[in-house]
Design goal:
single chain, 207 residues, alpha/beta, Rossmann fold, 6-stranded parallel sheet, 7 helices, 6 strands, 30% helix
Length: 207
């Protein structure tokens, strides 16, 4: 059985920053594809539709998703709008499933609202509930170093951008904490190993 992984990047990114994670997943034996989307200029529904079209060109009996930050919300919208997907599991890294405190505070400033663009609404919690039906594991960082310094009051623990509490999702299969900042989750060897374990077993590995 052929298994593919789709990598979905976060806000303001293009996917190149997921290079090391991609290499580690490839070494684990997966075919890995990167999906790039316009995180500011297009809304979540448009990006989910583009992801669904992209998937038509992806080979594999099983298709997994590994998504960072906003990318996890794109994947959630994909399964809401286009539920008839091939079997596979989902791992989100630092995704604010219940909304982003930082995005909410930044949205009160006109300049920051423009920087968030059309991703503002999902980042402030306007998303349909997760329907379940497949394994979803959420990894949260606990090293507070990131754009959260721009605002006050980000709940602890956090990864410097997203609070741990924001990475929880009703209906998720498993949840794991890793001592890394929001961006460092992409470069963390532990995060890559735990992601691979979840894709294989439907849960995170623990000592």
């Amino acid at each position: 059985m052929t298994e593919s992984i789709i990598l979905v990047h976060g806000l303001w990114m293009k996917g190149q920053e997921m290079y090391l994670l991609r290499r580690r997943l490839q070494r684990a034996g997966y075919r890995v594809c990167r999906f790039s989307y316009r995180s500011v200029a297009s809304d979540l529904g448009e990006n989910a539709a583009r992801l669904n079209a992209f998937l038509q060109q992806v080979e594999g009996d099983t298709v997994h998703f590994v998504a960072h930050s906003l990318g996890g919300l794109v994947v959630r919208r994909l399964f809401h709008d286009f539920p008839a997907q091939r079997p596979g599991r989902i791992v989100t890294l630092g995704t604010p499933h219940s909304g982003s405190y930082v995005a909410d505070r930044m949205s009160r400033n006109t300049l920051f609202r423009r920087l968030l663009g059309r991703s503002l609404m999902p980042l402030t919690g306007e998303l349909p509930p997760w329907p379940g039906g497949r394994d979803l594991g959420s990894i949260a960082g606990t090293l507070s170093a990131g754009v959260g310094w721009l605002v006050r009051g980000l709940p602890r623990p956090n990864d410097g951008t997203v609070a741990v509490a924001e990475t929880r999702l009703d209906g998720m299969t498993d949840h794991l904490l890793i001592h890394a900042s929001h961006m460092a989750l992409l470069f963390s060897k532990e995060a890559a190993l735990q992601t691979t374990y979840f894709l294989q077993h439907g849960r995170f590995g623990r000592q």
